Amino acid sequence: MKKITFFVLFFLVYTQLATSQTIKQQLESIPGVKVVQKKAANQFSESYTLLITQPLDHNQPEKGSFIQRVFLSFKDPAAPMVMTTEGYQAEYANNGLFVEELAQILKCNQVVVEHRYFAGSKPQNAPWDYLTVENAANDHHRIIEMLKPIFTGKWITTGISKGGQTSIYHRAFFPNDVDATVAYVAPINIAQEDPRQIYFLKAVGPDSTRNKIIEYQRAVLKNRSGITQLMSKLATKNNYTFVMSVDSTLDYLILEYPFSFWQWGVNSTTIPKANSSAETLWNHLNEIVGLTAYTQPGMLPTEAFFYQAYSEIGYYGYDTTHLSKYLSVKGGYISNKILIPKDAKPVFNPLTLQKVRDFIALKGENILYLYGEIDPWSASAAMPTTATNSKRIVSPGNSHITRISNLSENQKSEALDWLRKTLNISF
């Protein structure tokens, strides 16, 4: 019996190694792909970093190319493949131990695609003009075309926030590339600065919490001298350089505060009282919003995002109604356009978002949209209609951290049943 068991185990191990080697050889045979093997999480057999040569402009390949990082972990080539269309950098997936929520649920393969113009997928000295929704969608389409002959199971795209947007954008351009999409907390904006978030913040949560936020904002601005000293001290300590004056930076931080507060579901009991010390007021603001994004080099990881926001995908504006007399910028237009890269001159193209909204409403099949009720981004949630079979779930009291795992039991069952039915699989 022991001898038989040994040979059975040997056969299974040998078969798995042969399969893994075959997969690696197939990956290495794809033109323009460099394969780097790494340690894999327990769920997977193998894990790789793929360095894929992509055209800067898919409509004009002669314009040049760049290297895009793709992180692949596989279990079984015939099992489903979950593809994360990351909206930003994907360094977290460079760790082979990372497992996406849907890959955990489906116990399947996963691939994480870093977005063009971010981190290790940033073209060198390339114009910003090539950073478009359509080019990114073509990146994802091309990667799927490369990998589908190897991974033959059902394909599901997914992403969180801007990554969720990206998964929807891809489907709008290539609706038949995958079998389903799960988009988490993905805003679909209507303008460079969508006004719906401002109206949302005037009504979300109890009156007492919104009033407490306004009192805190005013307290911060009334303590401007002490707080800007603390900001300058922190910047010096960390070798940060402000991208605007320290007073203007404080204006931006405090205007951003309500959005961040509700986005991350901050407990209202943590808001300092109006008579708190400058240090207490500042520590809370720095924890919830943070100084980094308004400094160099802190803004570098997100500069591509702000280019996209003001060229195609939209963002949000600020309400200064209750704070105007305390702000250092008097009668001026306060906008996050200040965070656009200095060498970029984006011109907003509203047609892209119109195309996406029309797709969502009328043609977007097999898409699950998940939102948190108190997340300001839910103000610009996707709006599927009965013309499609897609589903939208809004989690009561939940924020931008809404996931299938933290839905109520009823909504979790609803989401999982949708996956089973849409993919026609059991798990």
Structure in words:
The protein folds into two domains: 27-191 and 351-423, Alpha/Beta hydrolase fold, catalytic domain (Rossmann fold); 193-339, no CATH class. Helices cover 38% and strands 15% of the residues. It has helices at residues 2-28, 101-106, 133-147, 162-173, 196-201, 207-222, 224-237, 246-263, 278-288, 303-313, 350-362, 409-423, and strands spanning 33-38, 46-55, 65-74, 81-85, 109-113, 155-160, 180-184, 193-194, 241-242, 295-296, 315-316, 367-372, 391-395. Helix 6 (207-222) packs antiparallel against helix 8 (246-263) and helix 7 (224-237) packs across helix 9. The relative contact order is 0.11.
* CATH topology descriptor of the largest domain: Rossmann fold
Name the CATH superfamily assignment of the largest domain: Alpha/Beta hydrolase fold, catalytic domain
Mean pLDDT: 94
DSSP strand tally: 13
Provide the low-confidence segments as ranges. Answer: 1-18
Strand order of the largest sheet: 1-2-3-5-4-6-7-12-13
Distance between the termini: 33 Å
Characterize the largest beta sheet: strand count, sense, and whether it forms a barrel: 9 strands, mixed
Tertiary shape: globular
Number of structural domains: 2
CATH architecture classification of the largest domain: 3-Layer(aba) Sandwich
Q: Which CATH first-tier class of the largest domain would you pick?
A: Alpha Beta
How many helix segments?
A: 12
Structural class by SSE content: alpha/beta
Percent of residues in helical segments? 25-40%
- The string of secondary-structure elements, in order, is HEEEEHEHEHEEHHHEHHEHEHEEH
Backbone CA Rg: 24 Å
Strand content: 15-25%
